[in-house]
Amino acid sequence: MAASLLLNRVSRSVSLHRVGPALVFSSLDSQIHGGRLSGTLFRERSLATLAEGGASRFDEMVSANQRKYYLLGGKGGVGKTSCAASLAVKFASHGHPTIVVSTDPAHSLSDSFSQDLSGGVLKPVQGVDSPLLALEITPERMKEEIKSQAGGDKSVKNMMDSMGLGMFAGELGDLNLEDMLNAASPGIDEIAAISKVLQFVESPEYSRFTRIVFDTAPTGHTLRLLSLPDFYDSSISKITKLKKKITAAASAFTSVFGKKKEIQEPGPSNELDQLKERMEKVRNVFRDVDTTEFVIVTIPTVMAINESSRLHASLRKENVPVQRLIVNQLLPDSQSDCKFCSVRRKEQTRVLGLIQKDTELSGLKLIQSPLLDAEIRGVPALKFMGDLIWK
Ligand SMILES: Nc1ncnc2c1ncn2[C@@H]1O[C@H](COP(=O)(O)OP(=O)(O)OP(=O)(O)O)[C@@H](O)[C@H]1O
C-alpha cells in the first residue's frame, strides 16, 4: 500500500513521508519533547534496531491449518487489546477465519477496532478480508439477566443453564446465587469465558474458525480463568463425595427410624461425568502446546517486567504453554533526542537487560514493539501495528 494512502487511513493526525532513504512516520501532536508536544520522527532504521531482539516468527503462527488458540495477557494498560486485535487482523488477512474474544470485563475491543462490537454476541468486524468475528463477553449484563430470571428463589440453576452448564446445577441447587455471583474465585467473568470456550470447541457452527484470539483481563482474572477447569474438577469430586455421604446418612436414618423411602444408590453420575469431560476439554485447550499459546504482553518498566515474570511462573505452574514475550511501547531511536526521551531510552535499555537476566523471561522469544506516535484505533491502524509486531 502506498505510504501516503496508509497514512490517511491510519489516522487524521498521522502522516508518512520519505525523507532521504528513511521512512518517516510523523505526527504533529504526539511526541513529548522537553515536557511539550512536538513532531516525531519514526525511522525505518529505528525499527530495524528494535527488531534486533528477534522477530515474532509469525510464519510459525500462521502456517498450520488446524485450529489454534492465542491468549494475550499481562498487566493492565500495557497494550494487550492492541496486540490481540492486531494479531486477529493479521490472521484474517492471511486467510484464517478468525474470532477475537475479550474476556476482560473492562472491554476495549470496540474502542480498538473503532466499531461497535458490544452486546455480548459475535459481531463481524468491518474492513477485514477474511471473516473476523469479535465478541466482548459481558458478565455484568449476564449477571443482571440471571438475577432477574432467577427471581426470588435465588437458585443457581438458571445461571448455570444459561451458560450451558445446566447439568452442574442440580448439584449446586441450594447455593445462594448472590454468593455465587459475588464470589472472588471463581468469578462469573471466568465462568462466562469458559462457557464460550466450550462453545467454540464443541459447536460445529464455529468449526471453520481456525484462529481464536483471546484478549484477556489483567493478570489475576486470567489466572483464575485458566485454573477454573481444575477448580470445577475438584468441586465435582467433592460433590460426588458429599452425595455419597448424604445417601449413606439418609440410608442410616431410614434404617433407624424405619421410614420407607427409596434411597438412591450413589452410582457414577452421568451428568457429572459429562461435566468433568467438558471441563477436561477446556483444560486441554489451555494446556495443549500444539494448539495453544499464551503471549505475555509487557512494557519496559521494572514493575511491568516483575509482574510478567510472576505471570510466567504461574502459567508454567498451570502448564499453560508460553513462547513469546512482547515488550510494547519501546521508544524508538531518534536523531534529535530530548532529555526526557534519552533518560527514558536509557531506562528501557536497562529494563531490556533485566529481561535477559530474568530466569522466567529470558528463554522466551522477545518481540519488541515500538511506541507509536498515535493512538492505535481502527482496522488500518491495527494492520499497521500488526505489521510491526507480527513478522
Ligand atoms: N505501541 C503502542 N504505541 C502507541 N500507543 C499504544 C501502543 N500500544 C498500546 N497503545 C495505546 O495504549 C492504550 C492502551 O492500550 P490497550 O487498550 O491495548 O491496553 P490493554 O493492556 O488492553 O489495557 P487494559 O488492561 O486497560 O485492557 C490505547 O490507547 C492504545 O492505543
From TrEMBL:
<feature type="domain" description="ArsA/GET3 Anion-transporting ATPase-like">
    <location>
        <begin position="68"/>
        <end position="389"/>
    </location>
</feature>
<dbReference type="Pfam" id="PF02374">
    <property type="entry name" value="ArsA_ATPase"/>
</dbReference>
<dbReference type="GO" id="GO:0005759">
    <property type="term" value="C:mitochondrial matrix"/>
</dbReference>
<dbReference type="GO" id="GO:0043529">
    <property type="term" value="C:GET complex"/>
</dbReference>
<dbReference type="InterPro" id="IPR027417">
    <property type="entry name" value="P-loop_NTPase"/>
</dbReference>
<dbReference type="GO" id="GO:0005524">
    <property type="term" value="F:ATP binding"/>
</dbReference>
<dbReference type="InterPro" id="IPR016300">
    <property type="entry name" value="ATPase_ArsA/GET3"/>
</dbReference>
<dbReference type="GO" id="GO:0071816">
    <property type="term" value="P:tail-anchored membrane protein insertion into ER membrane"/>
</dbReference>
<comment type="similarity">
    <text>Belongs to the arsA ATPase family.</text>
</comment>
<dbReference type="GO" id="GO:0016887">
    <property type="term" value="F:ATP hydrolysis activity"/>
</dbReference>
<keyword id="KW-0547">Nucleotide-binding</keyword>
<keyword id="KW-0809">Transit peptide</keyword>
<keyword id="KW-0067">ATP-binding</keyword>
<protein>
    <recommendedName>
        <fullName>ArsA/GET3 Anion-transporting ATPase-like domain-containing protein</fullName>
    </recommendedName>
</protein>
<dbReference type="InterPro" id="IPR025723">
    <property type="entry name" value="ArsA/GET3_ATPase-like"/>
</dbReference>
<keyword id="KW-0378">Hydrolase</keyword>
